[in-house]
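Render this sequence as a predicted structure.
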Amino acid sequence: MATLTGHTDVRPRTTDSAQSAVERIARRQLADARRAIDPVLRAAVGGLAEPLDQMAGYHFGWCDPEGIEITDGVQGKALRPALTFAAAAACGGSVDDSVHAAAAVELLHNFSLVHDDVMDGDPFRHGRQTIWRLWGETNATLLGDAMQALALGVLSDGVPEPVTAEAVIRLARATMTLCRGQYEDCAFAERTSISVAEYLQMASGKTGALLGCACALGALCAGADHRVVSAMHTFGCEIGLVFQLVDDVIDIWGDPAVTGKPAHSDLISRKQSFPVVSALASDTSAGRELARIYQARQPITAARAARAAVLVEEAGGRRETLERISGALGAALDVLPTDLATGDLTALAHLVAHRDR
C-alpha cells in the first residue's frame, strides 16, 4: 500500500506480482458490477419526479447540473454491489439473481453519502460540487430520502420471491444500524474523549452494516442456507471495518496527489479517527501532546497538523490501526466457508485492505 512506504506494515503481504494480479481481478469486478447495475439504477432514478431525477443523475455522474448527459463523469467504486455479486457467485447464483439486490445496496449507500455531505458541510465529492451546494440542504435531504425509498422498492421488486421478505428486512435493519453509526460519528465531534470500543462500534454501524448486508443479500438471492448467509454477513461486516480503518490511515498519511484530499485534513478538523483515538488513549508523552493540540482553542494549522501526525505515530496510533486492519482482514477471510468458490470475495477483501485512496 503506497501510503505505508517507509513504515512497518503488519498486514498480510503477498509478492508484488501476486498482489497486482489480485488487484486486477478485483478492479474488473468493480467495473463489471458498475455496468451490471447501471440499467437498474437508471430505471429507478427515471421514476423520480423532477428535479429529483436530475439531481440523482448528477450525483451518479451521468449528467451535469443542467441535466445534460456526460460520458466522463466520475462514479463511485461500486464496492458494495461487487460484494453482492461475488457473494452470490460463491453460492452458485447469477448476476440476474442478484442485480436488484446489488442496485439496492448502491442506492442505500448513496442515500447515506448525500445526507453525509449535508451533515458534514462538504462542498465537493469526487471533485464536483455536492448536491446540497447546488440545490440546497432541503432538496439534498429529500433526494437522500428518495434514494432510501428507491432502494427498498428496487429490492422488493426484483429479488427472488421466496427471499423477498427477508431481503427487505435485512436492508431495513442495515439502514437503522447505519444511521446509528452516523449519529455516533457526528456525536464524537462534540466530545474530547472516545474509547477504542466506542469507535469500533461506530465503524461497525456506519461502514460495516451495509457491507455485511450486501454480502448477505448476494448469498440470499443465490438460495444459500442460513449458515452461509450468516457467514457472508460476518465477512462483509469485517471488511467494512477494514475499509473504515484504511480510510483513517489514508486521511492522515495518504499522498494528497493520490487521494485528491488536502494533507492531514482529518487532523486539521480535529476528527477523532481510530489512529487518533488510539494515540490519545496511549498514556504516552506523545499522546498527551496530541491531546493539547486537539484541545487548544486556536485552529490547527498545516504545521501543527503535520506535528500531530508525527505524534499519532509516536504514540502507537498508526501501529495499532494497522494491527486492527490485519485482524479484521484475517477474521473476514477465516469466516468464508471453505466449500464455496470465494476467490472473488478474497480479491475484493485484499483490494480494500491495500488501497491507497
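Summary. The chain has one domain: 15-349. Residues 16-46 form the longest helix (31 residues).
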